[in-house]
Structure of DUF4034 domain-containing protein:
Amino acid sequence: MSGSRRWFAVVGLWWVCLSVHAQPGALPQLNTHQQQWIADQIFQNECAGREACLTSWNAGEDFPSLGIGHFIWYRTGQQEAFKESFPELLAFYVASGVSLPSWIAGLAEWDNPWSDRETFLASQDSERMQSLRQFLLETRQVQAAFIVQRMRNSLALMQAHSDTPDDLQQRFATVANAAPPYGMYALIDYVNFKGEGVSASERYQGQGWGLLQVLEHMDMAALQSDSGEQVLSAFARSAREILDRRIANAPAERNEIRWRAGWHKRTETYLPGG
């Protein structure tokens, strides 16, 4: 981002908060207990509940992934195919009145300060890395609220990229209201996991793998069911099929089939008792 990174991030979050507040409430509202449950589920999905995983840099990737949602953090001027989200989370903290760790607040820009994975891993026991993990652990519910906000704002983004926006809205609402709070959790987790599916850069062979593609791929008969569990089963099945398509389309050197079992297991958590 440019030198105005902080200003644009904070102002952008301010407008997002206004838009969320102004939208008519067609989606279930989550109470504090449900938000905490969702935060813990996402933490389990991304990190198996391990505190050390809150500051990760996966092998084969050129960026670290931080927090319960493994939010991506790029270096200055870095351009990648995937959506960067950690600076947006920092802006959300600021907009929410949460003080950042002093060393992050003191950065000239909200850019990843580590030059490479080796440097990052060598810093795992440093004072500032420990303070970052503690901060991320203690603010899990704030991160959950940030993820919820992203999900709520995803609908308008997806509709703008859909040939059938009204149908998409109905699918979105049907899943959201299925077996509360599991339907909201499924949408929240998947959009955090694989994005909205609207970015042209997040495509293999022209095909995306985000929430938009999962919703559009869902079986219509299941969407008309009165059973929330059947709706969620159809959503999870669609997600697995879209993820399998991503793996089939991925460049061979990425070897994405290694993630297939874990990705499939994640979709099983969208079902009550899963």
